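Incident log, structure service

09:12 report received: a user says their structure output differs between two submissions of the same chain.
09:20 pulled the input from the user's history:
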Amino acid sequence: MGEIVNPGLVGVHKQLGSGMPELRAKADAWSARNDLRNYTGNLREIAALVPEFDRRSLAQKDSSIGRAAGVQGAGVRDDSSHLDVVLRRAGPGVGLLEMPVGVVTRRHQLLPHARVIQNLEKALEAAEADPLHAQTQLDLTDFGARMSLLVDLPSRFNFELADNVPLGLRVLVHNSVNGGGLRLLVVWQLQDSASAFLCGVTHLASRLVHRLPTQLDNICSSVRKALDVAQAERAALQQWSTQLVTRDQLVAWVDGSVRRMWGRQAAVRLFHIAMTGWDADPAFSVEKVVPSRRTMQASDPVHGTPAFVETAYDALIALGWIARDGRDANERLDRMVQTGLLMRALFRGQMQ
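09:34 re-ran on a clean worker, output below:
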């Protein structure tokens, strides 16, 4: 079965006069808009599904990319000599056809998905976590340009409190070959729940976010550092499970820091979860009140959260539930990173 050619790149020769930045934005927006394909398996199985990529000059004449993108004729080199087209190779993976997936500048560092996964596999082996037993979920855009990877580490890495749902460690990777680059986080994930927050959250900061540079070798050291942090913060999480919070603290928190950082909708949902253990939707379309006084209609129970948040650990689980609701993969990662800052706001002046 054939594929739809990326309309952000077809007819490039007709749009050169309108400005290449607009063309690049159009191509990237189209690539981001594609539906995701989802796969599960172990890391080795997932690695076989990702496509390979090449890059070629947009000004290259008489090339396959020129024909695919409609770039032909004189005058192209002057307008596009600083731009490249990222090409998905023909072969196994998301499709069999060679496909242009984005327009990037010459400075853009192409980090192929397959090499990212290979380095992540080495990192897990160094941590004595067998890649063959690491349950993995792959989300891939239809053209394969953007990859999100969720890798669950074995249960021996879990953190458990008495009578509480265990926290597992999960590696999150987001890679985009047509812009945005590579991001990697190690997070605590509440088992059988979407609630997740950054490993190192008890440091009450966001400095542990891993925005990897172009050196893929940094994946191994970043994962090792995060696992060391996870081991060290178990005592702090244990202490948070006995650190009481008051309703007044929760009200000031959601009406202030949470609303400013994540918006009104996230704040009202978080407060409802903290008061009832249930997620909720606004009961009225317009209600000019602070988030803690908004009228809400319960929708879904939040797994792992008590009927009323009483401790710092309870508040963290509720916050992690809201963090996973970003508009895209990058915003979800940003929110998980920001959980440390928001927990610091909750305890400002009360915790050292």
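09:41 both user submissions now match this output. Likely a transient worker issue. Closing.
09:42 reviewer note: The chain has a mean pLDDT of 79. The chain has three domains: 12-35+51-105, 113-239, 240-346.
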